[in-house]
Amino acid sequence: MEEYFFACPYCWEEISMLLDPSVSQTYVEDCEVCCNPIVISVTFEDGELTAFDAQSIEQ
Predict the structure, then answer these.
(1) pLDDT digits over 3-18, tens only?
(2) How far apart are CA 2 and CA 23, in angstroms?
(3) What pLDDT sits at residue 59?
(4) Is residue 40 scored above 70 in pLDDT?
(5) pTM over 0.70
(6) Where are the alpha helices (DSSP H) in 1-59?
């Protein structure tokens, strides 16, 4: 597992997530600070993180 730090798109607090370098995926996870849902997209190639995106869900 790889720890990755980023800013929440709602509250702008820095949070971290553990990412599995064996799989690229898109999923929804709640911010640990403000509890709003964040769409997380991660891409790994050969175990290296090549793309990370954290977006708010449009209401």
Answers:
(1) 999 999 999 999 999 9
(2) 12
(3) 58
(4) yes
(5) yes
(6) none
Between the alpha carbon of residue 42 and those of residues 24, 37, 59, the distances in Å are 5, 16, 23
21: its two tokens: 């370098």
Q: How far apart are the first and last CA of the chain?
A: 32
Q: Are 49 and 40 in contact, with CB atoms under 8 Å apart?
A: no
Distance CA 6, CA 13 (A): 8
Which residue, 31, 33, 32, is CA-closest to 57? 31
Instruction: Locate 27 and state its tokens.
Output: 């999923």
CA angle, 5 then 11 then 16, to 5°: 15
